[in-house]
Design brief:
The complex is a heterotrimer of chains A (188), B (770) and C (283). Chain A is of the alpha+beta class and 188 residues long. Chain A is built from six helices and six strands. Helices cover 33% and strands 15% of the residues of chain A. A five-stranded mixed sheet of chain A has the order 3-2-6-4-5, with helices on one face. Chain C folds into three domains: 44 residues; 114 residues, Uridine Diphospho-n-acetylenolpyruvylglucosamine Reductase, domain 3, CATH 3.30.465.10; 107 residues, Enolase-like, domain 1 (2-Layer Sandwich). The longest helix of chain C has 23 residues. The chains are: A alpha+beta (188), B alpha+beta (770), C alpha+beta (283). At the A-C interface, strand 1 and strand 5 of A face strand 1 and helix 5 of C.
Chain lengths: 188, 770, 283
């Protein structure tokens, strides 16, 4: 269901009707495709996607400001970076969400995650899940970004530890690693 | 060669991957809030809307009646123990002037009551139903006004301790003078100048967060985002009047601190809610609370009056500093003293004087912040150096080179000014400043750019500026660290230490030190830091101490384990112990025979003279060897708008041996950018009634990737004989350079000197237009 | 903040969405990109109308000019090859100025223009290019000059009673010389001290039409007629640009009643007007 739905998200066509979601006893039942699996969630109407995802165990989605200003809660929504603290959970109904957990795991990291480690871009690491996902979205659009494009793609993800020096390097290294992985027939 | 003094490193000084970075990059590493705890209550705090008000009455009945509310606490429900929230060695040199919940509000954001409820909504509703009857008092917001007779007295209570002059709002004072001649009698040039730095917040991306619960035996467990787990345990015990042994503090992954988490802010109040409800409670600050009600940097008013002879010899160094601590006094004495103790010894003068005051006002509370006073002090001193050089007609670089402290030199300041008490006499045992300056000049192409900028025309003008810096490496004869290393059957080791990795990479750096001694890689070291039940004591992560002090403790613990390993191996290999060395995960004898560490461990655990091989050691230092740095920048000033753009920034740093060059560079890059952002953009702004008006990242701007100029860190290797494998500190020094370097560059570009950061376009234009 | 939301509607046509808005009035709120008001929903709101499924994410040109769907994100504009060539790329450039990639990727054109806010960059660009706003109340489609939409008496009805569906930019503006500039504390700052869009229709070095739009200094973006008058019919050059800049600063100064806190922004708007004009002329 979600795969076909995703394809309907285009610049000219609307998404097929998601209709109306009504709260019953203060709870709304939604279905969100998280990291490739359809997940039925019961959320309160005023609940934000960030809180709902964390409650479901996706703790890699971080709460740094809860006001759309820091980027630590970044997820991919239908493939594009989005601030999960600014979206009601119910708004994600019928859409595709990717969190950091959906990208790779320590035993099988995504090339971008490996690049952030190798570049020494991880200090406290609180901003890193958001940065990694912002990088993923950038490379999906532009597999060969220059430094300026890397900086522009990450300018909503604040970091206080690194001065961004090694993180910008990590984005450029990610591009190389993603291409290498693609040549080897691995994951994109 | 003795392994302790080796310089041909295999693990140390290598770019080893940070050991927790993969889990962090995959989102699996656990920060304080990344656990699910059944029955967790939400804790929230009620804050004063007034800058200064006495609480006449608090009525919590309606709040307690809100469905889902489990506890509502006010000062009446808690022990009245004045303490300091500063996470410092005991006895702390900060005044005991704070209660967990206050009976008098001293700033907009001071905490008045605490609520625990089943849901965040119920907690919020309860807060809105607490009725507080305030008697509003006149407030004082100006640092200098606060010291005058008749100013509102912020701390008029009788039971606070260690406030030198509460009636004049003086939270700390320190005066010192050493002189060889009459003041300014030998000076041909005298410069007397005032400087002023602004309120700023640390902006760690993870807000302050604490979870408290009772373990099955009823002991209090505090899971918290802290730099100082052992101080948290001690201060919470003190404030709640419960035994230290009834508390366990667990430090998971920490999302940055920069000093803000060297402060016991949330732990006692969260613990009080757990003790009141017997339930797990979480208090997580919002970003706004983090700005207003955690801690900030002490703003400072600084006067430097200095003299020099025509030949460029500095004769006199007189420094006055007035720090604003806000409503309470954490780090009141020590931040103020570090503003002088890290700066005055930088250049050798015959006459030295320091006058320091830290005052209370009705502002949010200042505390430890990366740089710790030296940032404020170096802005003044390194601006002053350029002003003096110009008056002398000297190149500012030559002027600095002529005067800076050299290898084997001491300073009367080291002995006179410690952190909150007398210091320790010391001489400089490593100094790479000469090379720092040389390499930095070359990297930024100083001469070439100076030439290119000559005769500029047009609205945009470029200029170059620099600054020289130092800091300390821990607090000598105060800071203590310890570690244990336990050997396992497979030749791996558990490294347990109180040293607190708050995102700095110290777990990795310390594992590298142990691995170097034991001839293994960091992959064979399982690091645990920090848990007050499981790891030995460490004062925590502050004062640039971890690599230098905790690193020495780890090195000693590893040497202790090594001794035991060698003894067992010698028996296995049937050679004298002196003939055994450890390398590549093996014990190797001079005759070429070898056995694996796993064999050694199994022999000790199961076969012969059975015992646990375990190294344990503590370390405290007799000196605090300064790291040195030289920063260089080129800026462009738009003379029509006042906008300053940093075009390039080069920061060279001598941190002795960089145990992990990648992490050392990362520390310095981050400190430098924090400094640049502070120099140009960051400032907490207040309404006339004392409320912070910009408590969000939208309105309090910290630099993002697109705002950031090219920053280049260059590590200048030296070897510090008192450090582990030659290491000194690196974490703080970098933040001290950007304000003066940029101020000097602006002057070079447009001939206008700025004395009050942040150098916003509006301020710069005003200065340009006179 | 406590809210009283009870349901979410996901209309799939503009007609359906506007119908819901009309029916529910103040008990409903429209959410598109969600970069601003999801965090400050009024307690009166019981229905969230999420319009992100509407087919309003197009950027195209026809004989009448440009059509930009209200649900285009700010980054869609920033990255559009068509907009990059329209009036010196001034819409794309304006879209790329300020805040950050995440906000630009989520925020929509509609959200940026229907509520005047000093953060919003796009109104100045659409004002300068004489845009029209197309909207519907659920029964019929209508259009209005963009200037009237943001400054007229009905401005508050947009997003409540009227659903903005499209912005149209006249075909004639395609070849205009235009330039957008803003001055802010840092590049990624949300707010600006001043923002300016200058657009010129030149014929043989003479200004035929001129547009000078300013925002950030004022509560809402506005065209500065006094500055435009200094330009029309004169040779495009430094002299006219300087006079226009001075006229703009004078006009803004009186519009802000000389408020001390705005004085710097007003002065900077003058600087930016001159620079934007010079750059537009030179482009």
């Amino acid at each position: 269901m979600t795969k076909t739905r995703a394809k309907t998200v285009s610049k000219t066509k609307g998404r097929a009707g998601r209709g109306t979601l009504k709260a019953a006893d203060g709870v709304i039942a939604i279905t969100v495709n998280v990291n490739g699996r359809d997940l039925a969630m019961r959320v309160t109407p005023g609940e934000f996607l960030l809180d709902a995802l964390r409650r479901e165990g996706f703790k890699g989605v971080k709460k740094g400001c809860d006001n759309g200003d820091c980027g630590t809660c970044t997820i991919l929504l239908d493939g594009k970076p989005a601030l999960s603290c600014m979206l009601f959970a119910a708004q994600a109904h019928g859409r595709r969400v990717v969190t950091i957990e959906g990208l790779g795991t320590p035993d099988r990291p995504h090339p971008i995650q490996a690049a952030f480690v190798e570049a020494g871009a991880v200090q406290c690491g609180f901003c890193i899940p958001g940065m990694v996902l912002a990088t993923k979205a950038l490379l999906d659009e532009d597999p060969d970004p220059d430094e300026g494009a890397a900086r522009r793609a990450l300018d909503g993800n604040l970091c206080r530890c690194t001065g961004y020096v090694k993180q910008v390097e990590a984005v450029l290294l990610s591009a190389k690693k993603v291409k290498q992985a693609a040549r080897k027939g691995g994951r994109p | 060669m003795n392994v302790a003094d080796k310089k041909d490193f295999t693990v140390v000084n290598q770019r080893v991957d940070k050991i927790d970075s993969l889990a962090l990059a995959c989102g699996t590493a656990q920060f304080t809030d990344d656990v699910d705890i059944r029955g967790l209550l939400t804790g929230r705090l009620l804050y004063s809307p007034h800058a200064h008000a006495r609480i006449k009455r608090i009525d919590t009945r309606a709040a307690k009646a809100v469905p889902g509310v489990v506890a509502v606490l006010t000062h009446e429900d808690l022990p009245r123990v004045r303490h300091t929230t500063a996470g410092q060695g005991y006895p702390e040199p900060s005044p005991y002037d704070t209660l967990i919940l206050n009976d008098k509000a001293r700033y907009v954001g001071d905490r008045i009551a605490a609520v625990a409820a089943e849901t965040p909504e119920a907690a919020e509703e309860a807060l809105s139903k607490i009725k507080v009857d305030y008697e509003v008092l006149p407030a004082v917001f100006d640092t200098m006004e606060a010291m005058k007779d008749g100013a509102p007295v912020v701390h008029d209570e009788a039971d606070s301790k260690n406030i030198p002059d509460a009636r004049h709002n003086i939270a700390a004072k320190f005066d010192f003078e050493v002189k060889e001649t009459e003041w300014f009698s030998e000076a041909d040039v005298v410069v007397d100048q005032w400087y002023k730095t602004q309120w700023a917040q640390h902006c760690a991306l993870e807000p302050h967060v604490t979870i408290t619960y009772l373990d099955p035996e009823g002991r209090l467990v505090i899971r918290t985002s802290t730099q100082v787990p052992f101080h948290v345990r001690r201060v919470t015990a003190q404030a709640l009047k419960i035994p230290v042994k009834s508390i366990r503090v667990i430090k998971p992954r920490i999302g940055g601190g920069f000093g803000s988490k060297q402060e016991i802010v949330l732990e006692p109040v969260c613990a009080a809610l757990t003790l009141a409800t017997r339930r797990p409670v979480k208090i997580e600050y919002t970003r706004k609370e983090t700005f207003v009600s955690s801690r900030t940097r002490h703003p400072a008013v600084v006067r430097v009056k200095s003299g020099a002879r025509k030949d460029g010899t500095i004769t006199d160094a007189h420094m006055e500093i007035y720090c604003d601590n806000g409503a309470y006094g954490p780090h009141a004495l020590t931040v103020m003293m570090c503003a002088g103790s890290h700066t005055i010894p930088m250049y050798q003068a015959k006459n030295n004087r320091f006058i320091g005051r830290t005052v209370y006002t009705n502002h949010p509370v200042a505390g430890a912040y990366r740089g710790y006073g030296a940032t404020q002090g170096f802005f003044a001193w390194e601006s002053q150096m350029d002003i003096m050089a110009e008056k002398l007609g000297m190149d500012p670089l030559e002027f600095r080179r002529k005067n800076y402290i050299r290898l084997n030199e001491g300073s009367p300041v080291f002995k006179a000014m410690g952190e909150g008490r007398e210091g320790v006499e010391q001489k400089i045992t490593s100094c790479g400043l000469y090379a720092c300056i040389d390499r930095g000049l070359a990297a930024i192409r100083w001469r070439e750019r100076k030439d290119a900028n000559r005769g500029q025309a047009g609205a945009k003008r470029r200029g170059l500026g620099m600054a020289c810096l130092m800091q300390g490496s821990g607090i000598p004869e105060v800071d203590m660290a310890s570690a244990s290393l336990k050997m396992n059957e497979d030749g791996s080791f558990n490294l347990h230490m109180g040293a607190t990795d708050l995102g700095t990479g110290s777990d990795t750096v310390l594992a590298q030190i142990a691995a170097e001694v034991l001839g293994i890689t960091v992959k064979d070291i399982i690091v645990l830091s920090s848990d007050t039940d499981l790891t030995p004591f460490d004062v925590g992560a502050y004062a640039s101490s971890t690599t230098f002090i905790s690193g020495n403790a780890v090195k000693k613990a590893a040497l202790h384990a090594r001794e035991q390993i060698v003894k067992v191996a010698a028996r296995i290999l049937d050679v004298p112990a002196e003939d055994v060395e450890l390398r590549d995960g093996k014990a190797v004898a001079e005759n070429g025979r070898s056995c694996t560490l796993s064999e050694v461990a199994n022999t000790a655990l199961y076969y012969h003279d059975q015992h646990q091989i375990m190294g344990v050691a503590s370390h405290y230092a007799q000196s605090s060897p300064p790291p040195f740095a030289a920063h260089f920048t080129e800026v462009e000033v738009d003379t029509e708008t006042g906008q300053v753009q940093v075009l390039d920034y080069v920061a060279t740093v001598d941190c002795g041996t960089a145990i992990n060059p990648t992490l050392a560079e990362g520390q310095n890059d981050g400190a430098v950018l924090n400094g640049i952002s502070y120099a140009l953009a960051e400032e907490m702004l207040f309404s006339p009634s004392g409320a912070m008006v910009n408590p969000s990242f939208r309105d309090y701007k910290i630099f993002a990737t697109t705002d950031t100029p090219p920053v280049k860190t260059i590590i200048i290797p030296t070897y510090e004989p008192n450090g582990p494998f030659g290491a000194k500190s690196v974490s703080e020094i970098g933040i001290n350079g950007p304000i003066p370097a940029i101020a000097n560059a602006i002057y070079d570009a447009v001939g206008v000197r700025l004395f009050e950061p942040p150098f916003t376009p509006e301020k710069v234009l005003k200065a340009l237009k006179g | 903040m406590k809210n009283n939301i009870k349901q979410f509607c996901f209309p799939s046509t503009a007609k359906e969405a506007a119908g819901l808005m009309a029916r529910l009035g103040k008990a409903a709120v429209v959410v598109a990109g969600g970069t601003r008001h999801t965090r400050s929903i009024s307690p009166a709101v019981e229905t969230v109308i999420d319009i992100s499924d509407l087919p309003l994410r197009h950027i195209k040109a026809d004989a009448d000019g440009l059509r930009i769907g209200a649900l285009c994100t700010i980054s869609d504009l920033e990255k559009s090859p068509l907009l990059a060539k329209w009036a010196g790329g001034v819409i794309a450039k304006t879209a790329g100025m300020g805040s950050n990639a995440l906000a630009r990727g989520m925020g929509t054109v509609g959200g940026n223009v229907v509520r005047p806010h000093p953060y919003n960059n796009l109104p100045a660009a659409f004002l300068a290019l004489d845009a029209e706003a197309v909207f519907t109340d659920g029964r019929k489609e209508d259009k209005l000059p963009f200037a009237e939409m943001i400054a007229g008496a009905d401005t508050l009805l947009f997003g409540h009673k009227y659903l903005l569906t499209e912005l149209r930019v006249p075909a004639g503006t395609r070849s205009w010389r235009a330039c957008a500039m803003r001055l802010s504390l840092t590049k990624s700052s949300w707010s600006s001290y001043a923002q300016v869009v200058a657009a010129l229709d030149l014929r043989g070095g003479t200004v035929r039409k001129a547009a000078v739009a300013v925002s950030a200094v004022l509560p809402k973006a506005a065209r500065i007629a006094a500055a435009e008058r200094c330009l029309v019919g004169r040779p495009a050059g430094e002299l006219a640009s300087r006079e226009a800049a001075d006229a703009a600063a004078a006009a803004l100064s009186s519009l802000t009643a000389g408020a001390e806190s705005r004085a710097y922004g007003v002065r900077m708007a003058g600087v930016l007007v001159r620079r934007a004009l010079m750059e537009a002329i030179g482009s």
